[in-house]
């Protein structure tokens, strides 16, 4: 076989947002959680990781580039994923290139990996979840791994816990498992993205800066010091999981919203109960909660809110009509700064702007205060507190991209384009 060939695969994987949160590990190295969790996968058109993986006898070592910058692969989590995938590799044959890779060859061959997130990394938008899921999915395709998505999820889990939930679309449950080796700690799809396709999601990106306390160290401190975490994992989450599965199955939005908001608030209460306390939300996050709570009380829960380990609000609306009304409220309270146009302030699925009757900044300025605000209360506005909004919806799981133009590595050299 010619010694200069390069074989490549490119995959695209969505991110996910937990509605019943994962917070706390019972095993740090295998990343085994203290409770089950449930998430919704977001439409990869708006939030995803694209990863190209390549193999060639020319490569001297495993290398990776994230968003154009080379990063080290020496970390334990990368090494776990690479080791587990290589162990499961099968024979690969590319007749066109006259290349045949035997199962045993994979141990000696090096890979190049290029990954790109179309959203801020480490800002509390689960970029590591999409990233590790994409890495594992793409490598599994390159190395002809026969395992199904659930089995692959156990490998992705060893990169980033929530990554296991990004191997499916729709609503996904990460089963905590009981085995010490983690073999039964896997993700399963509860329903696909078409099951509840009325839902619409608006994300308020309050800050795209890296967070002060990483999820990894935050979780460790919570497990060590928070009594509320122990109570939550043992008493609260198991019941919530059952109720949440029921709400999803029956499209029961009121119950879904109540559970989602309560679980988000309890997760952040655990962070406060940690010693020293961890603050992921900020004043803007708290204002958003307060506005949504007021509206939900006056109108029977049109919207659920949830916050991961960061200040960004993920708002899940019952349907498009509720989403349009939500966007009107958000833009009333958090208009863009005067030098920002609406087109770059609301990104993703912009069709919801038309539903909300918002074509430009003039329409935003003309918005009247939401009816749930009492007449005498001053309706204060906070321009500049939200960086931008992303409009999206539940989406599909990982896919291979066959269009070579979308690959991030050069097919001749295996280096970044």
UniProtKB/TrEMBL annotation:
* SUPFAM superfamilies linked: GHMP Kinase, C-terminal domain (SSF55060), Ribosomal protein S5 domain 2-like (SSF54211)
Enzymatic reactions:
(R)-5-diphosphomevalonate + ATP = isopentenyl diphosphate + ADP + phosphate + CO2
Q: What is its EC number?
A: 4.1.1.33
- What's a Gene Ontology MF term here? kinase activity
Record InterPro entries = GHMP_kinase_C_sf (IPR036554), Mev_decarb (IPR005935), Mev_diP_decarb (IPR029765), MVD-like_N (IPR053859), Mvd1_C (IPR041431), Ribosomal_Su5_D2-typ_SF (IPR020568), Ribsml_uS5_D2-typ_fold_subgr (IPR014721)
Q: Which GO terms describe its biological process?
A: isopentenyl diphosphate biosynthetic process, mevalonate pathway; sterol biosynthetic process
**Top-level taxon in the UniProt lineage:** Eukaryota
**Ranges of residues in domain Mvd1 C-terminal:** 201-400
**Location within or outside the cell:** Peroxisome
Sorted keywords for this record are: ATP-binding, Kinase, Lipid biosynthesis, Lipid metabolism, Lyase, Nucleotide-binding, Peroxisome, Steroid biosynthesis, Steroid metabolism, Sterol biosynthesis, Sterol metabolism, Transferase
Top-tier EC class:
lyase
GO cellular component terms, semicolon-separated? cytosol; peroxisome
Question: What's this chain's function?
Answer: Performs the first committed step in the biosynthesis of isoprene-containing compounds such as sterols and terpenoids.
> Which family, according to UniProt?
Belongs to the diphosphomevalonate decarboxylase family.
Question: Which protein are we looking at?
Answer: Diphosphomevalonate decarboxylase
Native species: Theobroma cacao (Cacao)
């Amino acid at each position: 076989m010619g010694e200069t060939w390069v074989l490549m695969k490119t995959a695209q994987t969505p991110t996910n947002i937990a509605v019943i949160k994962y917070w706390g590990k019972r095993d740090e190295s295998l990343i085994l959680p203290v409770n089950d969790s449930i998430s919704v996968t977001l439409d990869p058109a708006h939030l995803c990781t694209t990863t190209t993986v390549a193999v060639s006898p020319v490569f001297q070592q495993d290398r990776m580039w994230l968003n154009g910058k080379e990063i080290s692969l020496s970390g334990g989590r990368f090494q776990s994923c690479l080791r587990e995938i290589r162990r499961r590799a099968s024979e690969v044959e590319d007749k066109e290139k006259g290349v045949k890779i035997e199962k045993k060859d994979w141990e000696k061959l090096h890979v190049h990996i290029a990954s790109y997130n179309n959203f801020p990394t480490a800002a509390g938008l689960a970029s590591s979840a999409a990233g590790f899921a994409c890495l594992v999915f793409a490598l599994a395709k390159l190395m002809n791994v026969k395992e199904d998505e659930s089995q692959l999820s156990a490998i992705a889990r060893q990169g980033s816990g929530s990554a296991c939930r990004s191997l499916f679309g729709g609503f996904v449950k990460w089963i905590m498992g009981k085995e010490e080796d983690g073999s039964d700690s896997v993700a399963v799809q509860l329903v696909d993205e078409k099951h509840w396709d009325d839902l619409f999601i608006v994300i308020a990106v309050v800050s795209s800066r890296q967070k002060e306390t990483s999820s990894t160290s935050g979780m460790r401190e919570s497990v060590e010091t928070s009594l509320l975490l122990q109570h939550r994992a043992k008493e609260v989450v198991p019941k919530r999981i059952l109720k949440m599965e029921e709400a999803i199955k029956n499209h029961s939005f009121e119950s879904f919203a109540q559970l989602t908001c309560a679980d988000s608030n309890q997760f952040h209460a655990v962070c406060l109960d940690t010693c020293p306390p961890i603050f992921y939300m900020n004043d803007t996050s708290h204002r958003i909660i307060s506005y949504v709570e007021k509206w939900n009380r006056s109108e029977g829960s049109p919207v659920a809110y949830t916050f991961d380990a960061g200040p960004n609000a993920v708002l899940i609306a019952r349907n498009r009509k509720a989403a349009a009304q939500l966007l009107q409220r958000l833009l009333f309270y958090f208009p863009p700064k005067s030098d920002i146009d609406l087109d770059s302030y609301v990104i993703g699925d912009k069709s919801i702007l038309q539903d909300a009757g918002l074509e430009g900044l003039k329409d935003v300025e003309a918005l009247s205060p939401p009816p749930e605000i009492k007449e005498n209360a001053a309706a204060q506005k906070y321009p500049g507190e939200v960086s931008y909004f992303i409009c999206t919806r539940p989406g599909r799981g990982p896919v291979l991209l066959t269009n070579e133009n979308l690959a991030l590595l050069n097919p001749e050299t295996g280096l970044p384009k």
